[in-house]
Amino acid sequence: MMNNQAEVLKILAVGAVIFDQDNNILLHQNKDSFQEEVWEIFATYVRPGEKLEEALKRKIKEESGLDSFQEIVFTGKYYDDPKRHPEKTCIPFIFKVKVEGDNLEIKKDCAWFKIEDLTKLKFALDNQKIINDIINLYEKRI
Questions:
Q1: How many domains does the structure of the chain reveal?
Q2: pLDDT by residue for the chain (142 residues), tens digit each?
Q3: Cα 4 to Cα 93: distance, rounded to the nearest angstrom
Q4: Residue 12 lies in domain
């Protein structure tokens, strides 16, 4: 039974599906992942004393270099299947993030993808389902 904040924070996570002004989606490859050659959304555990949105901004900046956002919206989606990760328990709360600008500079392990090209990629864990859920949720409003 969980009885303190540290135990809760070991499973509490945030994730971002990031769109640019042309509705391309930003993904990254995690070299430390137990899976090789897969693409991921930006996700991280929430640290003690951190708000969800602060954790999300921290992770996006660390992994992509982006630090300016037009919009950050909690989608109402979370993924709590205890079998979603083979090595640990992780419950990510998913946000839609919108960025604008020409020639957005991103780190080398990141890339923008057109929505129609996502089917050609290999994804980590349930990241493809998460992305599809968010695309379907915002299909007419992306």
A1: 1
A2: 445 666 656 799 999 999 999 999 999 997 766 667 899 999 999 999 999 999 999 999 999 999 999 999 999 999 999 888 888 889 999 999 999 988 799 999 999 999 999 999 999 999 999 999 999 999 855 4
A3: 20
A4: 5-138
- Which residue, chain included where needed, has tokens 């379907």? 136
What is the C-alpha to C-alpha distance for residues 83 and 88, in angstroms, rounded to an integer?
A: 9
Q: How many CA atoms lie within 13 A of 31 on its CB side?
A: 4
CB 79 within 8 A of CB 92: yes
What's the rounded Cα separation, in Å, for the pair 61 and 67? Answer: 5
CATH number of the domain bearing residue 126? 3.90.79.10
Q: Which helix (H) or strand (E) holds 14?
A: strand 12-19
Check: pTM over 0.85? Answer yes or no. Answer: yes
> 77 and 134 in contact (C-beta within 8 Å)?
yes
